Amino acid sequence: MPEIRPSPVIPVILSGGTGTRLWPASRESLPKQLLPLISDRTMLVETALRASAEAGFAPPIVVCNEAHRFLVGEQLREAGITGARIVLEPEGRNSAPAIAAAALLVAETEPDATLWMMAADAVIADIPALHAAVDAAATAARAGHVVTFGMTPTAAETGYGYIETGDPLPGLPGVLAVRRFTEKPDAATAAAFVAGGRHLWNSGMFVFTAATLIAELEQHAPSVLEAVRKAVAARTTDLDFIRLDRAAFAACPSISLDYAVAEKTSRAAVVPASLGWSDVGSWAALWELAAKDASGNVAIGNVLVEDCRNAYVRSDGPLVAVLGLEDAVVVATEDAVLAMPRSRAQDVKRVVDRLKAAKRREATEHRRMYRPWGFYEGLIAGERFQVKRIVVQPGGRLSLQKHFHRAEHWVVVAGTAEVTRGDKVLLLRENESVYLPLGCVHRLVNPGRIPLVLIEVQSGSYLGEDDIVRLEDVYGRS
Predict the structure, then answer these.
(1) Quick check: 69 pLDDT over 70?
(2) Which of 11, 295, 420, 449 is the most buried (most CB within 10 A)?
């Protein structure tokens, strides 16, 4: 009889994190997985490419925040990743509900399919070794195990969880039993783990069949499974996206897969591996990963470094000049600057928490805000007015809308604008403009083949983004 080959492993990429410790580059509106922090490709794209069809995997499932859906879709398309299923979380509920949704969707047609769960924001240097580890894990998963990947520790790191390994599993080369999981130990315990040689870093990657995961959730986290079942059953399809039911998913407990299943299951197994792995959890981690000059400095973007040692300096906006610093991190965006000793990299969240408490926009939003049609960025803001630059991609259409508190003036800088103003449709070219009085129903469309760039001047008593009444929207926004 011909050999029956197993179906390709289905990658499940979880892209719901906010990357707070990499502020100010990473914010809720544009988190680290959607940024090019390691190479000229975003971390999401790097993750998808190492689990691509060319490497022998099935098209991926990407679980992401609803607000990031168009960015995720566009980044995958530009990278040539086809056939992806993008599942939208109405709100973040951690990794167990996210992977449960993917497993339930797959199980509708292929319950024995093997899933490879991974975060969208990790770095892996040795791709051949990764694929060999996935092969070993997939074999163990098809035998009924919940398999994780244990990274060989290179230091007594307190920011990672640890896995204590047991005996080799019979008939499964390269796979060990798991004795115990320990979440982020103190420094003394981490040092003892590394010295003892039986512990590995917990990478957060898992491999299992859809049926196995569902059975384990049924046993160990039934409330998670029940809520996600309802969210999947009541899902809707929006363009190319799978939108989970908001009310059902919001009722789900927020819990990681480690706590919900991995630490409780009797089926846990681990594949030890040395992959050059990092979860890129801080600016210090990025310094460690990046190429350095002779003085140990990393300089990225519009920066000047003079007489510094072991510094990480990055600018995504203005010129940043750094003089005479050692073991420092300086990161600048167009609207914020962070400076600190590299040893304090894990404390960035404290800064973000203070900004949130003060209701500062910089805590969560960039000056450039992406939308399904393109993006806008604030240029100037003052009392009762603000100026924005708007870029609409070819074919992009803003919603048909009106405002209760502001009027707008649009000046076309490049491209062609089709403007609906009341019951009229106007065609504007470079250096032409239109005035939209308060309460006027209007829409902006780019009918051309190049990006449409315009300057928008807003004036009125209230200029918040929530002063938009959408009457019609092709992107399904309310």
Answers:
(1) yes
(2) 11
Q: Tell me the C-alpha distance between 69 and 75, whole Å.
A: 10
Under a CB-based contact definition with an 8 Å cutoff, are residues 108 and 242 in contact? no
Looking at residues 369-397, what average pLDDT do you find? 95
3-state secondary structure the chain: CCCCCCCCCEEEEEECCCCHHHCCCCECCECHHHCCCCCCCCHHHHHHHCCCHHHCCCCCEEEEEHHHHHHHHHHHHHCCCCCCEEEEECCCCCHHHHHHHHHHHHHCCCCCCEEEEEECCCEECCHHHHHHHHHHHHHHHHCCCEEEEEECCCCCCCCCCEEEEEEECCCCCCCEEEEEEECCCCHHHHHHHHHHCCEEEEEEEEEEEHHHHHHHHHHHCHHHHHHHHHHHHCCEEECCEEECCHHHHHCCCCCCHHHHHHCCCCCEEEEEECCCEECCCCHHHHHHHCCCCCCCCEEEEEEEEECCECCEEEEEEEEEEEECCECEEEEECCCCEEEEEHHHHHHHHHHHHHHHHCCCHHHCCCCEEEECCEEEEEEEEECCEEEEEEEECCCCECCEEECCCEEEEEEEEECCEEEEECCEEEEECCCCEEEECCCCCEEEECCCCCCEEEEEEEEECCCCCCCCEEEECCCCCC
What pLDDT, on the 0 to 100 scale, is given for residue 3?
54
In order of their start, the domains of the chain are 10-278 (3.90.550.10), 283-357 (no CATH), 368-472 (2.60.120.10)
Q: pTM of the predicted model, to two decimals?
A: 0.91
For 219-229, what is each residue's pLDDT tens digit?
999 999 999 99
Averaged pLDDT of the chain: 95
Average pLDDT over residues 250-277: 96
> Which pLDDT score is estimated for 15?
97
Would the pLDDT of 159 be above 90?
no
pLDDT cut 70: percent of the chain above it: 99
